[in-house]
Structures are given as C-alpha cells and as structure tokens.
Amino acid sequence: MPYAKLNDVELYYEEAGEGYPILLGHGGFSDVTEWDPQLEALAQDYRVIRYDRRGCGRSIPRDVPQLSELWVEDMKQLMDSLGLEQAHLGGVSYGGMLLIEFLLKYQSMCKAAVIVSATARGRDGNRPGSVYFPNRLDQLSTIEVPALVVQANNDNVFPPEHGDEMVQRMPNAELVVLDGGHTINNERPEEFNRAMLEFLGRVGGEIDHPKDVRNT
C-alpha cells in the first residue's frame, strides 16, 4: 500500500487514472472511500489521488494531534512528495474547510478548487471530535483560482447560505446547489459528477459560465 512519509505521520493514498492530477480530501474523520462515487468518472480523464488525513483511515499513527494548520502542512508535504507543483484540489466538509486554509497559504499550487459541503465561517473546536478553524470570510477575496462551491439544499450542517457567502467573496467562484444533504457527493453522484467534470473541463476559462447555478 502506498504511503507518503512526512515529518511525524505516514499518509495513506491511492491513485487511479492518468492525466492532469486532482487531489481529493475527505470530510470528518472518514477516509478515501468518501470519494468512491467520483473515482470512475474522474479517472477517465485525470490522475486521481485520494488520501487519508493524519489519524484517519489507513494513515499512521492513529493517535496524532489534529489541528487545521497541521492538515495544511500535511497536504503541502504530500503534494511535494508526489512531485505535484500544481493540481486541481477538492475537499468535502472538513476537507473543503482545509482546502480554504490551504488556498490562503499555498494558492499557487492549485489550478482549480472544488469545495463541497463546507463553510468559511470557521468552527470553535470546543466539542468532542471538533477541530478549530478560524473565520475566513474576510480573507476569501484573496483566493483568485477558479473555484466550484457545491452545497446541498437540505444540508443541516452547512446549508446553502454558506456557499453563497463564499462565492460572493471569491472573485472566480461559482455555486451549484444540489438536492440532498451534507454528503451530497455520495447522495447525488451523477449530478455531482456532472457538475464537477463540466467545471474542470473549462477551467482554462474558454467557456463563459454563470455565477450561480441551482439544480433542485
């Protein structure tokens, strides 16, 4: 099994397909399987890399500090170890919040971002299993890479207004709202995959696109 040996952890990762690289981060404390419904569709045209965050899935060791700033550096070191100077980046829930943090520090390493079921309002980190994230709403205007923000109309964790806030502040972001809940990429894989592939296919900006697309 492939592992990337970093400073204090070994991150498990999987690869499939060939083409321009896309690195995908999972939500919560789950694992690479959260992106299973997207793997086949993406791997037809892209080099798809999924990884387990520190302490998650098959990454080792299990008992490690869980801080958003460590997650950012892990992601940077993983990309370095894989020889990725730049890639498409995607993240769900915590993975999407991590992606916002990453873009604020290492934006040049991202060609396009797909931020799913996430928020830029931050989290207080006071509850068991919760990780602190700062409120980044006032800094989103500095994120200039093309970004697809996907929310779900019945998400009881981060409802669609969280996506609205992001696209209003990020100059090259667009919003897609799908019919479903927080795990929208698993609940509506066909609609999600269509939106993601269409976005990535025109990331170079050759095709004009709307600011806000709602599929309900």
Could you spell the SSE succession in H and E letters? EEEHEHEHEEHEHHE
CATH class: Alpha Beta
Strands across the major sheet, in which order?
Answer: 1-2-4-3-5-6-7-8-9
Shape: globular
Helix percent band: 25-40%
Please report the total strand number as a whole number. Answer: 9
Q: Which class best fits the helix and strand makeup? A: alpha/beta
Biggest sheet layout: 9 strands, mixed
Low-confidence stretches: 204-216
Can you describe this structure in just a few lines?
The protein has 216 residues and is α/β, with parallel strands linked by helices.
List the helices and strands and how they pair.
Blueprint lengths: L2 E3 L4 E7 L3 E6 L10 H8 L2 E6 L16 H14 L5 E6 L1 H13 L3 E7 L30 E6 L7 H10 L3 E6 L5 H4 L1 H13 L10 E3 L2
Parallel strand pairs: 3-4, 3-5, 5-6, 6-7, 7-8, 8-9
Antiparallel strand pairs: 1-2, 2-4
Helix pairs in contact: 1-6, 2-3
Comma- or semicolon-separated keywords:
Rossmann fold, 9 strands, 216 residues, alpha/beta, 6 helices, disordered C terminus, 9-stranded mixed sheet, 29% helix
Question: Could you characterize the architecture of this molecule?
Answer:
With 216 residues, the protein is α/β, with parallel strands linked by helices. It has a single domain, classed as Alpha/Beta hydrolase fold, catalytic domain (Rossmann fold), CATH 3.40.50.1820. The chain has six helices and nine strands. It has a nine-stranded mixed beta sheet with strand order 1-2-4-3-5-6-7-8-9, with helices on both faces. The chain is globular. The C terminus is likely disordered.
